[in-house]
Here is the input.
Amino acid sequence: MHTVFVGHLIIFYIQQILHERRFPVSNLDLATRLSCTYISRAMATASQVKGGTTLLLIDVQKDFHPGGSLAIDSASEDAERITNIIRRSLKESTSIDRLVATMDSHHKLHIAHPKFWLSGADNEPPPPFTIISSRDIKTGKWKPRPNLKLPVGKDLVNGSLMNSQYDKEGNLDLVQYCIEYTSALEKKGRFQLCIWPEHCLIGTEGHQLVTNVQEAMDEWSDVTGGNIEFIMKGENLLTEMYSALQAEVPISSATSYNQNFLNSLRQSERLYIVGQAMSHCVHYTTRDIVAKWPKSERHKICVITDCMSPVPSFEKDAEKFLQFLKDNGVKTCLAADVK
Here is the structure.
């Protein structure tokens, strides 16, 4: 109201000045239009989303879809259902108020990629899906490549979280670090170090969101004025990050539990979860959400099970995930149920 009043005063004073100076009528019209433009701009506000429905899209990226380096055969059908949910929300009464997309984001020489490692026997990298244990590193069966260069100016490892520390020249004893890292993984009990095909390399096509989902998200943004929120994970090349909330072994503040992200999700009245893969990143992101989500509010979470699939040969891990949801009072639904 105050803004409108000020705007009208501006119109009045400009018109008075132009009258006194006997400017042509066309200039009076111009003054009025300029003043009205000021009012409309002053009244435009950008607001934050509060409450409402959030769709959390976990790693819906090309490398996890047919044609990608870590492809899941049924991921295209999952993506089509995700696309339909987003587009349907623009036409029906139920709307999606927030789109949050996590992005698996790796360097080529990541600790879980082949070229990080060499065989102690022939200096060849391990094939994908090789399991490397702490014992394998201690005995020399596998060793980190000796010429690895760490990013300049980035302390990937916090000495308060890991015993391995940089020396005065900024070097890291990589063998000792890898022994400590794999031992911590094994102690936690969720994983051993598994070597994956190179995937979701930052800057490559495989890192991009799958096309039909990206197009639907862009349409949603155009229609609603909402901005897609992106959460990058896996950028630290010395630890794995299946969950979007924290690394398997937190080694820095950036890989420790992301409480701010959880708090933002908790503002939702309803949280739908979709993405890839059901056996890994969806599984452990959801676990880390549920672990710190009040039990009395877990009815707000719904995992859309036909919008995700397991990595081939990891179907049992997907079954464990479904059992976890049931045991912890988290709802599941199908894409058609989202109305």
The first strand starts at residue 53 and ends at 58. The CA atoms of residues 115 and 266 lie 39 Å apart.
